[in-house]
Write a structure and sequence with these properties.
Oligomer: single chain
Helix content: 55-70%
Strand order of the largest sheet: 1-3-2-4
Shape: globular
């Protein structure tokens, strides 16, 4: 009996000592508060005095078992959300507020804090530390400003010009582009469908494949933004094999490689024909800039005006109207193409960070090509030295600033906050210096390609290039899955610097090899994948789809809150976003991008380079092989080919 009492006392003491640990284990994430909860939006605003608030809530971190469990869970921030920072969309009428309380002051904040504190404490036993009101919505209609009427005038003008150009083309069929026929829907449709033969077919296919992966990645980012019922699905995905797919962000290097290749191919061709010099720079820069701006500014106007008017919902103001406000406030970031130098979370059309980085690298690479023009004998050495420096810059930047491996910055909580305050994402993804090496790899590939034409390098029969071309596919896959364990452990400063400087540039090098392999027709398997005819038209829509797809995701998510995430729902979301994006991209291309390209070509008096003209300008046969490639420079000269991403 005595032994039994001693044993019971020992078990009691053991349980008392480990009670806190048992509590922490007991309060798993199914007991955590939901990250995002929204009350009935339409029901709230049916009341004439109704007011609806979107609020970010910071919970107190105290000694309660649930609070300590949340804190412990949040420490592994590379795969977990922080459940101390939650979002609530709440009807202010329930809290005693009405439409007279649209101005956010201390009274409104304290009332919302008290109301939310009662709800959260009654359900979870947690207290509210602070609230931040993100937006206020009432059923009052806002007056339309001049910008809205300007948007109507702009759209009506574009439609009338395209209607007039189409009718004129039908009545007076002409092949030469004029001010009127530039807006011909029939002609622009023919260009979209690829009526004209191209040499660089693989370029358009690579654009499409890259855009396809980007749409899939952004669909996953949308699910990871914390607006779902089952947050554990995202956390489990980041802790498992699916975390490797977060590194798909490196596919953007494809656009940088293509941009560097096409720009250098054009400039080097001009150097060969003694047509390049300082006087050419303004025209080159103007051509590049004006190919980007018309479609971009058109989307800025729509995003700032009528797109936010297209719907409503508990998240509509937060994800749709907010971007419209940023376009009204920060549109000037896009005009000089410096949007990648500003915080990502407050940008208009934030996905266009790529356009800023590409424009900056375009300008810088022109300086490199000017040096090659001045010192042609040292061109190869100069490019190799620049390649080394561009990779060294990424390494030193990462090491000195103590940046994390870039793939670990794509984590649930950082996605949810749109990478707010994350130095790694800012310096290792959006900045021009971190993408310099990829762009320069494209320049180097163009230099090799031009040398094979002018100096008779027999690259078509090169065993080394054939082996690299065969290996390029596995290298692309390996670079995507590289560092798969970095979401589960802390990398050293040196390891992070090595990863950031090599991972995406290994991918870029493989893409450059694929371009060269396709140009020299080295492997039928890869060529059939990269030159499939239907992909040519889809590739030309890359720029329009880049501008449109995030708006499709935002308007879809703004109507609802709390849908269930699953593999099936992800596939269906991606399929829907893909179809809607490309359906909307067709009219944007035909009505805006293509006519703007036609007008630009007329303005700059650029002429298409044909096989005959190339042969005629090279009487000694210096570029004889180039004559076999019809319109070899056309894809980089003509805006009609959707080459704004070049």
């Amino acid at each position: 009996m005595r032994k039994l009492c001693v044993l019971c006392a020992f078990v009691f003491l053991l349980n008392a000592v480990s009670a806190e640990d048992v509590d922490l284990r007991y309060f798993t994430r199914r007991y955590f508060p939901r990250l995002s909860v929204g009350e009935d939006f339409d029901g709230c605003l049916e009341n004439t005095d109704g007011v609806y608030y979107s609020v970010d809530v910071q919970l107190k971190q105290d000694e309660s078992p649930l609070s300590k469990s949340i804190q412990l869970h949040a420490k592994d921030n590379m795969i977990h959300y922080n459940y101390s920072n939650i979002h609530r969309a709440i009807c202010g009428t329930i809290c005693g507020l009405n439409k007279t309380h649209t101005v956010i002051n201390e009274t409104v904040r304290s009332t919302l804090k008290s109301c939310l504190n009662k709800k959260i404490y009654d359900k979870y036993g947690l207290e509210v530390d602070s609230v931040t009101v993100f937006y206020v919505k009432t059923n009052d209609k806002e007056p339309l400003s001049f910008l809205y009427y300007f948007a109507i005038f702009l759209v009506a003008t574009i439609l009338l010009l395209n209607l007039g150009g189409s009718l004129y083309t039908c009545a007076f069929p002409v092949e030469k582009t004029s001010l009127i026929t530039a807006f011909s829907i029939k002609n622009n449709w023919k260009e979209l469908c690829g009526s004209e033969k191209e040499s660089f077919k693989c370029i358009q296919a690579l654009r499409f494949y890259t855009n396809l992966v980007t749409l899939a990645l952004h669909s996953g980012v949308f699910l990871s933004s914390g607006l779902i019922q089952n947050e554990e699905y995202i956390e489990d995905a980041f802790s498992g094999i699916k975390s490797s797919f977060t590194n798909l962000r490196i596919v953007m290097q494809t656009f940088f490689v293509i941009g560097g290749f096409l720009m250098a191919n054009k400039v080097l061709g001009m150097i060969e024909k003694n047509q390049f010099g300082l006087k050419c720079l303004p025209k080159l820069l103007l051509n590049r800039y004006l190919r980007i701006m018309p479609t971009l500014l058109f989307m800025v106007v729509l995003t700032a005006t009528w797109i936010p008017k297209m719907g409503s919902g508990c998240l509509w103001e937060r994800v749709v109207v907010h971007e419209g406000l940023m376009c009204k406030k920060n549109w000037w970031h896009l005009v000089p193409l410096v949007q990648n130098f500003f915080p990502f979370e407050n940008e208009c059309l934030p996905q266009t960070w790529y356009l800023g980085a590409d424009w900056q690298l375009f300008n810088f690479s022109l300086i490199i090509l000017l040096l090659i023009w001045k010192f042609p004998k040292h061109g190869g050495k100069l490019l190799l030295i620049t390649s080394f420096i561009s990779i060294l810059v990424i390494f030193l930047q990462s090491y000195i600033l103590n940046l994390r491996p870039i793939r670990s910055s794509i984590s649930p909580d950082l996605i949810r906050t749109r990478f707010q305050g994350d130095d790694t994402m800012f310096y290792s993804y959006f900045s021009p210096q971190c993408n310099w090496a990829g762009y320069h790899i494209g320049v180097l590939a163009a230099y090799i390609y031009r040398k094979s034409l002018t100096d008779n390098w027999d690259l078509k029969n090169s065993r080394i290039l054939k082996m690299l071309f065969l290996a390029s596919g596995p290298i692309v896959a390996a670079s995507i899955f590289m560092g798969g364990d970095l979401h589960k452990r802390e990398a050293s400063r040196f390891e992070a610097a090595i990863f950031n400087s090599l991972d995406q540039n290994l991918f870029a090098a493989a893409i450059a090899v694929q371009i060269l392999g396709c140009l020299f027709k080295m492997n039928d398997f890869y060529i059939n994948i990269l030159e499939w005819k239907p992909l040519q038209s889809l590739g030309r829509l890359s720029y329009c789809s880049l501008l449109i797809h995030t708006g499709v995701l935002r308007t879809y998510g703004g109507h609802q809150l709390g849908f269930t995430a699953s593999d099936y729902n992800f596939v269906m979301l991606f399929a829907g976003v893909f179809c809607v994006t490309y359906v909307l991209s067709v009219p944007l291309y035909i009505l805006v991008e293509a006519p703007a390209g036609n007008l630009l070509r007329m303005l700059l008096n650029s002429k298409k380079v044909t096989a005959e003209s190339v042969h005629a300008t090279n009487e000694k046969g210096v570029v004889k092989k180039m004559a076999e490639k019809i319109n070899a420079q056309q894809i980089s000269d003509s805006p009609m080919n959707g080459n704004v991403l070049s």
